[in-house]
Amino acid sequence: MAQLPRPLLGLYGSPEPIWKLGRLVRDTGANFMVISRKVAKLDLVSKLKAEGLKVFADFACFAGKALAQKHPDLWPIGEDGKKLPVEEWYLGLCPTKKWYREQLLSSIERAVRELPLEGVWLDFIRYPTKWESPQPTLRQACFCPNCLKLFRERTGFNIPIGDPARAAQIILSRHQREWTEFKIWVITSFIEEVRKALDKVRRGLVLGCFTVPWTDDDFDGAIKKILAQDFARMAEFVDVFSPMVYHRMVGKPVKWVGEYAQYLKGKVKPRLVVPIVQAVDHPEKLRPGELSKAILLAVENSDGAMVFTARHVAASPAKFEEVKASFARAKGRL
Hints:
This protein is α/β, with parallel strands linked by helices and about 325 residues long. The chain is built from 13 helices and nine strands.
């Protein structure tokens, strides 16, 4: 892995809102930025690098309502045999479609070949679930014919591929353990393919992943059973884990940011953990100093902190100063 600054202190999103203020991203004290692939153009990346920042592109993997509407085979099928419903802005995608996985890999490889990036972060690298609430709706998926065919090939179980609802009933009542293992393989195998693609372009490119901030015990083991994120398995290929510790969204006190960072650090050693904390006022407005506390708790218990998002930092002079001050304090702790 390429040499990275310690602690890693960064912003997520687009730098444009900060530049429009007449400021630089480095004015916050950041030493890296993860930008959306949609804004990852050569001039923008080069400008960020001229500020002295490490720059990474974020790839949304298995989510996107517009994609599913354009390509119906990507719409995930639930245990009732029907399409999963859209939840507000969110719709997960079926992660087994070969053509789509190849398209994603090609896009990732092209980005690191054409742009002066230090690596990539994978987002929505999981099975479908909108998790950002205290009590998320948990649904098993995907039971489309392609998923069922792959599951039957890997296990030898005789399940009715043409009847998703019946197949789901058989799988979830008789073969839950094998189904969980299958889903973990689907997700982890794609991460492995990304790792190989990066190494093929250039050794040392960093692979990061945004992960859901659940423990093995939360929601009856849903991190593996529902989302198929097995952190120990992912750590074979991932360099940096960024748990999305959006404490307000999930109804946790700010101290939980440090507690979860410490938990994940213990699960994925020696890999780096750089939590991403919320600057977003949702579902309520953050209290003064709350963002700063979240940043410092992340740094104290892991390898750095990232802020979600640059746009929300730019929109609030108070938050801009909180980020600047807390990043300065974090560097002073070394």
